[in-house]
Amino acid sequence: MPFVNPGDLYLFGNLIIYFKNKPMKFQFNHIAAVVAAASLFVSCSNNDDSSKVTEGTTGDAELYFDNGVAGDALILGNTFTNSTGEALTINRLSYIISNLVFIKEDGTEFIYPKEESYFVISQEAELFTVHLENIPAGDYKKIRFGLGVDQQRYLQGETAQQSFWDLAAANNLTWTWSTGYKFINFEGTFTSAASAESKVFQVHQGSNTATDNYREITLNLPTTARVREDEQPSIHIKSDTNVLLDGDTKIILQDNLNGAGTAASVMGGQNLIDIAANSLKMFEVDHVHNGSGSHHE
């Protein structure tokens, strides 16, 4: 074995790098390149590594909903101006997430148990995380969820869903039982070019006897979500509240003023159908954390 000058050896983690008889500048440049490559490998392996799936085992997962508005973080009490020129100050945002489904690359689906698959997200109450248990171990590429409460569940009656009804009511997401759930509660004040005087607005999205406005949304995951006994993926979902009124279909609050011209209410008719369509583009997955424990506590 040829003689190796110890001065030509460099240690980085578990890597030993050897540069024989090279100028110092050459050594440092190449060490930097190797370090960068090794760091990239370690970083990527944390979030998209395919560790072995043990059949018959289960694990947990969480969805974290990060609410925003027109590209900025949603901060209650802050004001933003949408593309129609109306300036909105948001004081409340709550919505119902339901019927979670995890989808593998081959299209195989795991449908989360329906009785346990209804959750409230609330900016006001700081409810952002959905924790899910007993998901079959596997590598998941997509998720699907409902925005609101489906008719099948609602028609099971009040007794069958009393605990969730109470949770929804505590977060201003119900009307009377006969009227049902508010799928989205979006409230605040606004001004417009037509009036600089601040007026209250209320957007209450739900189903009614005329239309079923429950919608399901499928999202691709940029990184595989690895569910294992000892790994809990956290799927970070960003929402854009602005899309509800300022999406493909524009809903002008000034056009929805009451007879006295003091407040705007969006609670029925074509507006709810348009909001349901707009909401399909409200969410996107920003990233996936893989590993043990919660990543957003």
Key phrases:
five-stranded mixed sheet, 297 residues, 16 strands, alpha+beta, single chain, 5 helices
Topology:
Blueprint: E1 9-12, E2 15-18, H1 24-48, E3 58-69, E4 72-73, E5 79-81, E6 87-104, E7 109-111, E8 118-122, E9 129-136, E10 138-147, H2 151-154, H3 162-170, E11 184-192, E12 195-205, E13 215-227, E14 234-240, H4 243-246, E15 263-266, H5 270-279, E16 283-289
Parallel strand pairs: 3-14, 12-15
Antiparallel strand pairs: 1-2, 3-4, 3-9, 5-6, 6-7, 6-8, 6-10, 6-11, 10-13, 11-12, 14-16
For the termini, the CA-CA separation is 54 Å
Estimate nothing, just give the exact number of structural domains.
Answer: 2
Taken as a percent bin, the fraction of beta residues is 35-45%
> Given the C-alpha coordinates, what overall shape results?
globular
Q: In total, how many beta strands?
A: 16
The structure class reads alpha+beta
Radius of gyration: 25 Å
Percent of residues in helices comes to: 10-25%
Let me know the largest β-sheet.
9 strands, mixed
Element order: H for helix, E for strand: EEHEEEEEEEEHHEEEEHEHE
Describe this structure in words.
With 297 residues, the protein is α+β, with helices and mostly antiparallel strands. The protein folds into two domains: 6-48, no CATH class; 58-289. It is built from five helices and 16 strands. The chain has helices spanning 24-48, 151-154, 162-170, 243-246, 270-279, and strands at residues 9-12, 15-18, 58-69, 72-73, 79-81, 87-104, 109-111, 118-122, 129-136, 138-147, 184-192, 195-205, 215-227, 234-240, 263-266, 283-289. Strands 5, 6, 7, 8, 10, 11, 12, 13 and 15 form a nine-stranded mixed β-sheet that branches. The longest helix has 25 residues, at 24-48. Residues 9-16, 24-28 and 31-46 have low confidence and may be disordered.
